[in-house]
Amino acid sequence: MFRNFLDLMVLRLVQQEPLWGYKIIKYAMEKHGISIRHGALYPLLNNLEREGYLKSRKEAMNGRVRKIYEITSKGMKIVNTYNDYLKEQIEEAGIKT
Amino acid sequence: MFRNFLDLMVLRLVQQEPLWGYKIIKYAMEKHGISIRHGALYPLLNNLEREGYLKSRKEAMNGRVRKIYEITSKGMKIVNTYNDYLKEQIEEAGIKT
DNA sequence: TACGATATGTCTCTTTAGAGACATGTCTCA
DNA sequence: TGAGACATGTCTCTAAAGAGACATATCGTA
């Protein structure tokens, strides 16, 4: 079905806007209070790209190179499936939004 | 934060009504189309009880013994935290329920 | 009485995930 | 020039998870 929570969080963050690793770590902390170790994230990003869920381009910003990721249609499928699942669960739990 | 998807599904199913292992497997398939192997579920249920998220009682039904699980307040905390997280994600994704 | 469904459990093997260290390099500002 | 933020990567060790078999026992029905 899905992957795990971390994979999904990364896919969802990147889906909202193209992001690079360092920023993903910042966002996860700021938006969700979740700390992601970079030693876990960078290999994960490379895996997600290798498996076709994300694609990257390198961008030089003031001499520092960022590897910016965007979601692919294959990645969007995962996110959409997850969103449907969320909706189902929300309805099941009777939560009002 | 949380545990994994399987743990949460089990906690949420048991929270809806007291259930035993065999029925959880049936429900997961009927309600979500997800197959749970019994070799994974029974140890998990025992762990969740040992850690205080669930409590069980044995009930004899027509000579067959069922181990019926109920959620504890500690288990409810996990479910509620997860529901808040769901709500957050739903709002973030702009999904209408 | 044999089969399929109900019901719960363990065990081993393999794969995957996680913690944390090792490694490198730039930029900005004090 | 030194500290802290920015930026990305690998590696090893350990812990956890998953697949699938082994194991047992009852009930209902054909």
Question: What number of structural domains do the residues of chain A give?
Answer: 1
Order of helices and strands of chain A: HEHHEEH
Low-confidence stretches of chain A: none
**Computed CA radius of gyration of chain A, to the nearest angstrom:** 14 Å
Name the CATH homologous superfamily of chain A. Winged helix-like DNA-binding domain superfamily/Winged helix DNA-binding domain
Q: What is the CATH topology assignment of chain A?
A: Arc Repressor Mutant, subunit A
Mean pLDDT metric of chain A = 90
Q: Which sequence of strands runs across the widest sheet of chain A?
A: 1-3-2
Largest interface: A-B, 20 and 20 residues
CATH architecture identity of chain A: Orthogonal Bundle
Q: What can you tell me about this protein's structure?
A:
The structure is a homodimer of 97-residue chains. The first copy, chain A, is of the alpha+beta class and 97 residues long. Chain A has one domain: Orthogonal Bundle (Arc Repressor Mutant, subunit A). Helices cover 60% and strands 19% of the residues of chain A. Chain A has a 3-stranded antiparallel beta sheet with strand order 1-3-2. In chain A, α1 (5-16) crosses α4 (73-93). The first copy, chain A, is globular, with a radius of gyration of 14 Å. The mean pLDDT of chain A is 90. At the A-B interface, α1 and α4 of A face α1 and α4 of B. The structure holds a DNA duplex (30 and 30 nucleotides).
